[in-house]
Amino acid sequence: MDGSSRNQPICKGRSKTAAARQYQNLSTKLRRTIRKAGLTPWPKLYQNLRSARQTELTDRFPIHVVCAWLGNSQSVAMEHYLQVTDEHFRQAAQKAAQSVAESALLEREAEGGDGQKTPEFPEDSESYANAHTNMVGDSGFEPLTSCVSSRRSIHLS
Question: Where are the domains of the chain?
């Protein structure tokens, strides 16, 4: 060979280095645009974008359909792309609260009363007085833990 085949264009008149440079420029432009918007780009920008989109689509469509669209397998999607989002936690908390409310309603109906059950303490006890005056605060019965507040949408790094 005369050595000229090494320098053959790979894509419509562009050499391999020009194609790589164009991709690098696209990444640079996108990161610059994100910074201009006052945001911080994710470390693995394109992987995180793909991960976020795969998660969004899987919330709306069956996973096998989304994997066919994006060109990966269900096992790859579950291992590398699908995320747990704040919305997933909100929905779980809402379903749990709804379940508790439904259980309480069924309990009241089973008792046959109007559901206005009062605690059965002797009227002269301290517990009786506290039951009518103490209220539960905004944080509820359970103490706040750092584990709950740190469970946010995880972006790959």
Answer: 10-41, 43-110
